[in-house]
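Journal club side-thread
Mid-discussion, someone asked how the predicted structure for our own chain would compare to the paper's figures. Pasting it here so we can look after the session.
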Amino acid sequence: MRQATFGVIVGNRGCFPGHLCESGRSQILKALEEAEIKAITLSPEETAYGSVESFEDARRCAELFDAHRKQIDGILITLPNFGDERAISDALRMANLNVPVLVHAFPDDPDKMGPEERRDSFCGKISVCNNLRQYGIRFSLTQKHTLAPSSPEFRQELQSFAAVCRVVRGLRGARIGALGARPAKFNTMRYNEKLLERHGISVEPLDLSEVFGQAERLSDAEPAVQAKLAELKAYVPAEDVPETPLVKMAKFSVVVERWIESQSLVAVALQCWNSIETYFGIAPCAVMSMLSQRLLPSACEVDVLGALTMYVLQLATGTPSALVDWNNNYGDALDKVVLFHCSNLPRSFLQSPCMSYQAIAARDVGREQAYGTVIGRIKPGSFTFARISEIYGNLGAYVGEGEFIDDRLTSFGGYGIARIMKLQQLLRYICESGFEHHVAITQGNISRVVAEALGRYLGWHVYHHI
């Protein structure tokens, strides 16, 4: 991930102590530097303490931000004292960057409440937010109303806000690849390409026959094929997989990756079965697993919205994401569910992953035509789940968190037992709202980031399961 860049507005109001603004600006810039976030802000030579208090200050700030428009991912408003709510709002309006905004206020010290030390940032934050609402500017808040810049909580707020900015920026102009036609029996994989385009998300299709044709023209000895073959063998143990399907996987991977690069795709959705197994002789899951592991999310069954959801989770975490089925109950446990796929899960999700054959497709085409899955049990630990779909004529989503646990289970493919609080309530929402059976997952707890980015800044309907 590239380094995040924030435009920083230091609020000030002249009837409050100026030295608090001066020292506060230094503390904020230090906190950003320690968090490895670049700051673009007025200098003390341009305005008093490098702050924004008047319309002229706001104009200068807006001009500075406009000059760095392509770099700025989000805006941090910080209030070392009460701040001038109108000047801050004017600066944002004139800059018109259309990026996420975080409002932060310094805490007062109960032992320093005299006129020379008192901040009143607690109150000023409310006034700033009131004005931002009047101006129609969307903004985010820290979990605590006031936070010291040196606190671990503030460091976490900066990281979370940077993740929100990555999601918002990443979705604007995103290009998703759709390889092949969706399986005829999977109406759940339908999607509205025109609706995606209205949100700045493009879909680039490619017929499966083109991939087969290009792959067949590749020589086994071609350096790109041999390099990919070595990569496949090194990716996960594949001793039980014959050489012939491994070479086919390598050729398939070379063609797909060239397509991804030529079209500047950020995620792909593939027709995984059973056309590829029947007419090309492999399961593409291992190729897809490698793509997802390399931060190129790859979804099966031409689930374009699933691939988009994977991309959102990846943007939020900077780590791989996966796509699984809400697949089975776990006995009578109301808060546990078996999540499963055949599978194309990235190896980093699995305990002792290895390459095998697609057991479901093998029943129709035979094992020799179905090699290429990555199987194993999902590692225990916290995770975030999400799904984007078309809801009420617009894009919508649900997002929440759970935990993979070690309870006993014997299965094939890629699988895990997840514990999710109020699971039955969630499943009812999924069914009543018409969501698909696929759900994207990533390691860690970032549901608040996803809900904030999609709901607050993109204006989608988001159900946050908490």
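Post-session note: Residues 5-171 form a domain with the Rossmann fold fold (CATH 3.40.50.10940).
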